[in-house]
Every structure is written in C-alpha cells, then in structure tokens.
Amino acid sequence: MHVFRHPKFYDELRKKRKKFQKEQADKQASEQALQETVPHNDIEEANRRAGGPTSHEQGSEQASDQASDEDASKQR
After folding, report:
1. DSSP string of the chain?
2. CA–CA–CA angle 59, 57, 69 (5° rounding)
3. Which of 31, 52, 58, 70 could form a disulfide linkage to 47, CB 3.0–4.6 angstroms apart?
4. Which of the four pLDDT bands, split at 50, 70 and 90, describes residue 76?
5. Statement: residue 55 has pLDDT above 50
6. How wide is the angle at C-alpha 56 spanned by C-alphas 55 and 60, nearest 5°?
7. Given this model, what pLDDT does residue 1 score?
8. Mean pLDDT across the stretch 32-49?
C-alpha cells in the first residue's frame, strides 16, 4: 500500500541524503589522505602510546628483548 507523502518530504529527504553522502566522502577522503601521508610505523607507534590494540604486542616484545639482552650479557 502506498502512503501519500507531500513533495516537500521528498525534497527534505534528498537534502539529507546529499548531506550524508558529502560527509561520508569527506570522511573517506581525509582517511585516505592520512594513510598516504603518515607512514604505517608512525601509526602503530601512536597506537602503542595511546594504549591501542598493539600495546599488548609491544609489551611482549619488550619482555623478549630484555630476556635476549640478559642472555647476551651472561654469555660475555
């Protein structure tokens, strides 16, 4: 069943859609620009400092680095 909608309703709907699409395009463009300008290593480092998803991995890396340093000093 078709519900009658005033033509103004469709005009408002088009405006909202255009605004949404513009925001999405701007967001996508800014993310792409960020990825192109910032090296991947810098992004990972920033995530570690902010306690991001790679912070746990870095902690285990530090522990293994310390263990290998201790082993190297014992061998000397």
Report:
1. -PPP--HHHHHHHHHHHHHHHHHHHHHHHHHHHHHHHS-HHHHHHHHHHTT-TTHHHHHHHHHHHHHHHHHHHHH-
2. 50
3. 52
4. very low
5. no
6. 115
7. 85
8. 71
